[in-house]
Prior knowledge:
single chain; mainly alpha; 10 helices; globular
Amino acid sequence: MNFEKLMYDSSKFLAVSTAKKLCENPQFLENAIETVFKDINQISARTTNVIEFFDFEKPEFIKPYLGKIIEKISDFKYDGQKRSFLKLLIRHINELDDEEQGTLFEKCLKFTLNYKETVAVRYYSVEILSKFAQKYPELKNEVISTIEISLAESSPAFVSAARELAKNLK
């Protein structure tokens, strides 16, 4: 499956239909992952959406790639790639080993405090941090502090969502 040719536009319809093809042929997931990490203009970002939709249907296939996704997530040029993979990682937090969890936690702290990141990237990062705080109560104060610090100079949408997540931790 050649994702460089398949992902000719950014429509949700194309991403979903390509994800369905990938579900029928999961052996091509490796091709999709390679396309994402090549960082080919918007093609890589569009392919990330396909992988996220694919993961809803076939979550068992993504496990071997979680470590690489976590390792590379800060390097993506397009916010859509970060956003899609953060949403995917939310569903797989309990499948990560200790090292992957630690790396993801640190990257999400940085995303949350980086005002240049999009609202979506920061929000999904806060959601991941909240899940870690629920899983590891000793992280609760650090996560709440990070959320509170991140509220300064943030958009009203982010402030509202982040406050709600922080409130659920208290």
